[in-house]
Design a protein that fits this description.
With 219 residues, this protein is an alpha/beta fold. The protein has four helices and eleven strands. The longest helix has 17 residues.
Length: 219
């Protein structure tokens, strides 16, 4: 488990994808074992991101939406306003966990938070992410460098879902996609971000008192 130190949670609002991606790489490249872990909560303007395993045939008709080739795992996905993105900058070696355990922590945090709103979600063994009755409500993609993670999760909350029809999401043709507002209007973006970061923090070995809030990027 992590030694006693703060967990920094940054609430960043709407941020350009490539700006944040560069900041994640800079943060991860420069950190050492003394640097606290961080969670970044944000939204992105419309963008498709293609992971390292991505195949071009899964991008069907991107139109005016830019496509960015990135260094996370997985295939193509869509980010846009109304989607909650949380990036996890976690020192896995210090935390004493592996990549598979981190994926499990993320998936179970999503399942637990969604269950508060009566949404019965579950992961799938053959495809990372969280699903409701076969429709994908949250995507995962991670990169590990120098024993530390970056990238993270994307939870569809209240967004224009049409851009998902222009790709094979995560490499699956005609994979149905859904969002929180298909099931409830009680959850707000801010509330979901707070509940998810708290659940992730506890699963990573932090107490609520160790969470420190910030609203600037700074990298």
């Amino acid at each position: 488990m992590p030694e006693s130190r703060p967990l920094i949670v940054r609430d960043l609002g709407l941020q350009p994808y490539e700006t944040v991606w560069e900041a994640m790489k800079t943060f991860t490249g420069k950190r050492d074992r003394t640097v606290p872990d961080e969670l970044w909560c944000l939204q992105h303007p419309p963008v498709y991101t293609q992971g390292q395993a991505g195949r071009p045939e899964h991008i069907l008709a991107p139109g005016e939406i830019p496509v960015v080739q990135v260094d996370r795992g997985g295939q193509v996905t869509y980010h846009g306003p109304g989607q909650l993105v949380i990036y996890l900058m976690i020192d896995l070696a210090r935390a004493g966990i592996g990549v598979r355990q981190l994926v499990d922590i993320i998936e179970q945090a999503l399942v637990g938070v969604l269950s508060r709103y009566g949404i019965e979600a579950a992961p799938r063994p053959d495809a990372p992410g969280v699903y409701v009755d076969g429709a994908k409500i949250a995507s995962l993609g991670l990169r590990i460098r120098r024993g530390c993670s970056f990238h993270g999760l994307a939870l569809n909350v209240d967004m224009d879902m049409e851009p998902f029809t222009r790709i094979n999401p995560c490499g699956f043709a005609e994979l149905p996609m859904c969002q929180v507002y298909d099931f409830t209007r009680e959850a707000t973006m801010a509330t979901l971000a707070d509940q998810l970061t708290r659940k992730l923090a506890v699963a990573l070995g932090y107490s609520p008192e160790e969470i420190r809030r910030a609203d600037e990027l700074g990298y």
